[in-house]
Specification:
Blueprint lengths: L4 E3 L3 H7 L11 E4 L4 E7 L6 E8 L17 E3 L10 H6 L1 E6 L1 E8 L2 E7 L7 E11 L6 E9 L3
Parallel strand pairs: 4-10, 5-10
Antiparallel strand pairs: 1-2, 1-7, 3-4, 6-9, 7-8, 9-10
Amino acid sequence: MCGRFALTISPEVLARLFALPEAPVVTPSFNIGPGQMITGIVCEGPSGANQIKTMHWGLVPGWANDMKIGYKTFNARSETIAQKPAFKQAYQSRRCLIPASGFYEWQHQAEQKQPYYFHCQNQELLAFAGLWEVWHKLGGSTALVSCAIITTDA
């Protein structure tokens, strides 16, 4: 399961690779974790053109009372995604790509966890499959766009 990843590509290259109308504002980072704002690529609207969205990593379903649920829903298992209430609506209509330069997996060694960084040998960009959702705080007008990365067994 993905718990940390990196995005170090330039905004201009990101715009070219995803056919974006303009270069997005992206801050390079080697340590992106759940709860942070991340970059997502969505295809919506009448034009069907790719658009960039800044999203909270941790999907908050529209029916949630509190955004804290996002700390448990940053990954969505592909095997159960269509049945889980937190992901069901987004799975049906709000899918995205989440660009990454690489990701980390940890191996338990004695009393420590050792991170290993996985990336393409040629340093090309990866893109995680994802879901996104818009959540409105009860009684508030502010909308939070959030997402989850779709995962599966290794």
